[in-house]
Amino acid sequence: MSNKNEQPKEQVCDYCGKQGVHHKLITRSFGKGATLLVIENIPVITCPNCGETYMTATTAHMLARIKLHRKSLAVERKVSVAMFAPA
Question: What pTM, to 2 d.p., does this model score?
Answer without folding.
Answer: 0.77
